[in-house]
Design goal:
132 residues; alpha+beta; Arc Repressor Mutant, subunit A; three-stranded antiparallel beta sheet; two-stranded antiparallel sheet; 5 helices
């Protein structure tokens, strides 16, 4: 998986080679990508290119996802029933697959956002420690 989160991609590569004693960081990155995609699609239906551009723009060019990670992730979300896909003309009048959030996807988004809030709060707590 290739998801650039500033310096996080380096940490993921290091963790992936660290062995079995750690939980799978690729699951964390995949879960994070799922959350980001669900949130973006909660705002409005978009095609893959527009999703990628929106993520990049909203994050101030910090978050970028490669096509090799984006489209398999969208396919997985579609298989889970969290998003629907429909072929429509894009802004440049070419056929593109537009993705939209389902009711089940909205529930999953709430669950994923709650998990993210707990995880990020725990990480922030550890990072901000003044003394061990």
């Amino acid at each position: 998986m290739y998801l650039v989160l500033g310096n996080l991609v380096v940490a993921v590569l290091i963790f992936e080679g660290a062995g079995e004693r750690l939980s799978k960081p690729s699951d964390l990155v995949q879960g994070t990508l799922d959350l980001l995609l669900l949130k973006i699609l909660a705002l409005e239906p978009l095609n893959g290119f527009a999703i990628s551009q929106r993520l990049k723009r909203i994050s101030g060019d910090v978050l970028q996802v490669s096509d090799g990670s984006l489209y398999p992730a969208l396919h997985k979300l579609e298989q889970e029933g969290w998003i629907n896909a429909e072929w429509k003309p894009s802004e440049n009048h070419r056929r593109a697959k537009f993705y939209s959030l389902t009711r089940l996807g909205r529930r999953q988004l709430e669950k994923e956002a709650g998990n993210w809030n707990r995880l990020s709060a725990a990480i922030s707590h550890v990072v901000q420690l003044k003394r061990a």
